[in-house]
Amino acid sequence: MSKSRSVVNYSCKRITYHTPLPFAEVRARLDRALNKPDASEQVPKVLYETRTKAEFESGLTGLLDGRDFIFLGELVHHQWVRTYTESPNIPQAVVYTFGNPFFGQSVLRRAMRMGLHVPEKLLLLEDMDGNGTTIIYDEPADIIPVPAVEGQVIDEDLFRFIVGVGEKIQKLVESLVAE
């Protein structure tokens, strides 16, 4: 088989919220909302060690515990940038990876290529002066259902489902910035 390359252009809405709340407070709220303490320990076991659908569903349902999303990972940018630049004045910045594998399978079973943006990510960014926090994420309905080739039509039911996931992310973020 010969190699090939394709390019699909798409546009995306980047959503930004700002709050005067301190970074530590917003991060603590997000950690609680995503069940980070339990999820960081249990998610790998549920995703990679369960052997039956029933075990998977039971473990995941317990971690979600009524939540829409759970913590899946993080990248603490400020730590490595401070080390590399030898500058302690870098604001805190953490990329959270979060999701709901029940939602994820609804998308991925239709098109694994959508796994590029499943699970979701958001960035918590401390203000340079330390007096507030910015939360940034991309609209899921713009980045997840990108067609494999230019002009391909995306399933309407799948698109509506992804719009619903975006609404749940918006609700999550609004809960983080509520004063």
> What is the mean pLDDT?
93
Number of strands: 5
Oligomeric assembly: single chain
N-to-C series of helices and strands: EHHHEHEHEEHH
Structural class: alpha+beta
Quickly count the helices.
7
Cα-to-Cα separation, first versus last residue = 58 Å
Report low-confidence residues grouped into runs of 5 or more: none
The geometry reads as globular
The largest beta-sheet arranges its strands as 1-5-4-3-2
The main β sheet shows up as:
5 strands, antiparallel
Classify the helix fraction into a percent range: 40-55%
The rounded Rg comes to 18 Å
Write the topology of this structure.
Elements (H helix, E strand, L loop, with lengths): L13 E6 L3 H11 L2 H14 L3 H12 L5 E7 H9 L7 E7 L1 H8 L11 E7 L6 E6 L1 H4 L12 H22 L2
Helix pairs in contact: 1-7, 2-3
Describe it:
The chain has 179 residues and is α+β, with helices and mostly antiparallel strands. The chain has helices spanning 23-33, 36-49, 53-64, 77-85, 101-108, 140-143, 156-177, and strands at 14-19, 70-76, 93-99, 120-126, 133-138. Strands 1-5-4-3-2 form a five-stranded antiparallel sheet. The termini are far apart. 24% of the residues are buried. The model has no long low-confidence stretch (mean pLDDT 93).
Considering the chains and any ligands shown, give keywords for the structure:
179 residues, alpha+beta, globular
Q: Brief description of this entry?
A:
The protein is α+β, with helices and mostly antiparallel strands. It has helices spanning 23-33, 36-49, 53-64, 77-85, 101-108, 140-143, 156-177, and strands at residues 14-19, 70-76, 93-99, 120-126, 133-138.
